[in-house]
Amino acid sequence: MTDSADPLDELDDAVAAAAFRRLVRHLRHRHDAQNIELMGLAGFCRNCLADWIRDAGYEGDKAAARALVHGMPMEEWKATRQKEATPEQLAAMERSIARNAADRG
After folding, report:
1. Does residue 41 fall inside a structural domain?
2. 54-102: per-residue pLDDT in tens?
């Protein structure tokens, strides 16, 4: 839900795009920040960003969008970067997902 009075809507698209690219490059660099941790703390992860790119009109499929965000194919990222999620991380993610749903109310 977007508030029409939100100053973010007035942000120039080029500025927003530059900030988004910086965020994605930062996440590519910080592969130590696991997706499960991002989900647990912030309610989104690299895969969410890929979904949002597609929602915004990117014509590639899910795999292409994820490769764009991860900087490599998802299978390679999982094999070289992703660690096994702990029960605590999974529980935090579930709480965060529930909060996302409640905040959209």
Report:
1. yes
2. 999 999 999 999 999 999 999 999 999 999 999 999 999 999 999 999 8
Domain that holds residue 50: 34-104
In a 10 Å sphere around its CB, with 0-12 CB exposed, 13-18 middle and 19+ buried, how is residue 35 labelled? Answer: buried
Q: Which two tokens stand for residue 2?
A: 């977007």
If you search the block for the tokens 């890929």, which residue do you land on? 50
Share above pLDDT 70 across residues of the chain, in percent, rounded to a whole number:
95
Is residue 75 in some structural domain?
yes
Closest CA to 53 of 67, 39, 36, 33: 67
Q: What is the residue type of 102?
A: A
The verdict on residue 29 lying in a domain is no
Are 45 and 66 contacting, i.e. CB atoms less than 8 angstroms apart?
no
Q: Is residue 14 part of a domain?
A: no
Alpha carbon distance 57, 51 (integer Å): 10
pTM: predicted TM-score of the whole model, two decimal places: 0.87
